[in-house]
Specification:
Blueprint lengths: L10 H4 L4 E5 L4 E4 H25 L5 E2 H21 L2 H12 L10 H18 L3 H21 L6 E11 L9 H7 E12 L4 E11 L4 H11 L5 E4 L6 E2 L3
Antiparallel strand pairs: 1-2, 3-8, 4-6, 4-7, 5-6
Helix pairs in contact: 2-3, 2-5, 2-6, 3-5, 5-6
Length: about 240
């Protein structure tokens, strides 16, 4: 039966229940009560972390698969640690995670921080410290939401990639400089490549654009210089992101 708990104690040691899971390596038994409380708490906290992520990313957008991942991570980590059931094993697992190399495109550092947020919560639940996990979730959740609402660290300019297609007979050096200097705070030509079997050139610039500029006028003035050919202004946003009103 479940007994009264010390909120900041180790719930796996404090709970008394029939031991149904046994760790053969350490001869440590884990009761059904401990298992369901730890994994259940991790699942609830993972869901709440996903809500904070949605709330702080409602303007710039978010991926549905990423939100689902945040919910899944804490109970997965908690289950693994319950089976390991030792502090040394927890540290070994943390070391193993540092060796994982994700072969996907590097994302927003804040998104990666949310992964560690969910993992840390799962670790706390998995080793039985539910109280610490809840306090950690509340404190960091409030901080993240407050920073998002006040726009802490927001830059007034956006870093973008500008791609300009030009005919092969156009001498592009210095042609677009006046327009770029007018509408950007920073611009640099990063790459030039041929397209369409060498009949066209594509200029690729890194640019910083202020939020208050008229982007249509910016593109129109560039089109007047490149013969009304294709111009792409890339905003670095994923196609599968969801945007709220």
């Amino acid at each position: 039966m479940l007994t009264a708990l010390n909120l900041f104690g180790n719930i796996i040691n404090d709970l008394e229940d029939d031991s149904i899971f046994t760790n053969g390596a350490s001869d440590t038994s884990v009761g059904a009560g401990q298992f369901f409380v730890c994994v259940g708490a991790a699942l609830v906290l993972g869901f709440l972390i996903s809500l904070i992520y949605i709330a702080t990313h409602r303007k710039e957008g978010y991926s549905q698969s990423y939100v689902t991942t945040i919910i899944m991570l804490p109970p997965i980590i908690a289950l693994i640690l319950i089976l390991i059931n030792s502090t040394a094993g927890a540290l070994t697992l943390a070391g193993a995670f540092t060796l994982v190399r994700f072969r996907s495109v590097a994302g927003d550092p804040k998104d990666i921080a949310y992964i560690f947020y969910a993992m840390a919560t799962g670790v706390a639940c998995g080793i039985g410290y539910i109280g610490f996990a809840v306090v950690f979730f509340i404190v960091l959740g409030i901080v993240m939401f407050a920073l998002s609402e006040i726009g802490f660290g927001t830059c007034k300019s956006k870093h973008m990639t500008l791609k300009i297609t030009i005919p092969e007979n156009l001498d592009y050096q210095g042609v677009f400089e006046p327009v770029l200097s007018k509408y950007t705070t920073y611009h640099k030509l990063r790459r030039v490549k041929t397209t369409n079997f060498g009949t066209l050139f594509e200029l690729i610039y890194s640019v910083d654009v202020n939020d208050d500029i008229d982007q249509k006028k910016f593109i129109d003035e560039l089109r007047a210089l490149n013969g009304n050919m294709t111009i792409n202004l890339v905003f670095f946003r994923y196609d599968d992101k969801i945007y709220e009103n």
